[in-house]
Amino acid sequence: MNELYHWFDLLGVAVFAISGTLIAHNKSMDGFGVIVLASVTAIGGGTIRDLILDVPVFWVSDTSYIITILVAVALTILWLNHRQSFPNYYLQLADAFGLSFFAIMGARKAIMLEVPDTTVVIMAVMTGCFGGVIRDVLAREIPMLLKGELYAITCIAGATLYTQLIHLNVVDELAMIAGGITILLLRLAALRWKIGIPVFRYSENNNRQ
Amino acid sequence: MNELYHWFDLLGVAVFAISGTLIAHNKSMDGFGVIVLASVTAIGGGTIRDLILDVPVFWVSDTSYIITILVAVALTILWLNHRQSFPNYYLQLADAFGLSFFAIMGARKAIMLEVPDTTVVIMAVMTGCFGGVIRDVLAREIPMLLKGELYAITCIAGATLYTQLIHLNVVDELAMIAGGITILLLRLAALRWKIGIPVFRYSENNNRQ
Amino acid sequence: MNELYHWFDLLGVAVFAISGTLIAHNKSMDGFGVIVLASVTAIGGGTIRDLILDVPVFWVSDTSYIITILVAVALTILWLNHRQSFPNYYLQLADAFGLSFFAIMGARKAIMLEVPDTTVVIMAVMTGCFGGVIRDVLAREIPMLLKGELYAITCIAGATLYTQLIHLNVVDELAMIAGGITILLLRLAALRWKIGIPVFRYSENNNRQ
Q1: Which PANTHER family match (chains A, B, C) (predicted)?
Q2: Are A81 and C200 an interchain contact pair (Cβ–Cβ within 8 Å)?
Q3: pLDDT single digits (tens) C91-108
């Protein structure tokens, strides 16, 4: 069973590595920096989670994550070199899948340490979002997370659902699937219909700085 | 007594959460990203401190910090939605208070672990300044910390005073108040009179890159 | 012998502190923020390494690192104030030396913890490159690491050589020198002849975003 989780984790790493490679291509980067950007995107969020939860960082003694990243990056580069352009949509799609996998895996890791529910949800957000935040900061983009569209909140919804299902003694696998699909659908809906939750009432002639 | 420190800590978290929300509004952000930016500002510095000192991260098993952030952000949003603009001065004021609380709480946490005095002072700077640095990096602003005005050095002054008073066996509360007020007054003075410590002698026709 | 390593470590800290000060000058920064930028450059990479390897952060109970930074920054400021400009070349040279020292010291620290070889190499990259990445992010530059020229890959080459030599039971000192010189020469060659490893085949009329 843990075997299965490991594969899901690797899948999350792969899609985020792809998303890092796509953004590197978008920003006309080149060379080995591309792999660094992909790696930071893929394992950055989980690394921060493990540091904060004070558990061994997941990739330090397990080389499968690094190999996954290298394979994912290599395939993406091959693909990009054959089709010189790609719609921005694919980047956001890869990001949505990574978000969903990572958030639930992060929540699961936290729930096993018996931290409060709010911390479980925060860990889901961190695992899911912070790799992408580091990616965007390094690539000097406005972090997707901080834009108006639903992003972190999809993780909060999915992780809260997951946490509640676990408390209701639902089987772990089922709870994970329910939580993960919630995140994915919410994020895809947000992308499709530009759904956001406006919190500020910006006036037209707002004195923005 | 520890109860009292906890309240001070929460107060620091609240003012930094407000400062994060204000900058999010300033940058025309929206949605849940505002709460993420506020949270990172409020608990980022202390999180880095706890990671480096290798003690449990303060908010992981204590939900009161997260609740404080949510309340502070909600109130700030309400306030901003009623008064569409606010002077930049308030942002800097909130920042100065957060700086002062956090720096002293950081110094206190470090001094209890019996690290060298220089490390105590560095921890004060990290706790006080690094949440704001992350905030500014994410919002793509030049970090206040790196501008010419007195910023980190106010923490150094206050934390050094605090450390020396503790070594002189002054009561903890008194030492904290003395250190905290030093930071606050220095920072407010720096804002009021644009005080900086120029270290470079920039010529007029400097070949800056 | 450990004495000698400590001195090398301090030398790495000094050159990175210089590189941080130079970039602060380049960006027309001033005040104490210069010291913060220099410090983050000098100890940022090693701090992240120690956090991830879950060992005590190297500078927390050893004040010699902080003193080294302060001296290096002070001397650099003096020098800059006498010669108002400096060629960008010196910044890159200081960076190359820091890269080489830090990468090997990072690999050595990791190899002693008996992590997999890939992790040893990653730790070399992190120790060598991440201080500079933080420096560039704070200074709002495109991280050198992400530009096309050989950068991270020099650390990978040097650290791989070092790791293999250690496995072949070569004396530690010799392995370190071989690895370190490899990094330095590769990086200098990359700077001199603009060597990069193009991974993307960018077309002329690429629809870059």
Answers
A1: INNER MEMBRANE PROTEIN, UPF0126 INNER MEMBRANE PROTEIN YADS-RELATED
A2: yes
A3: 788 888 888 989 999 999
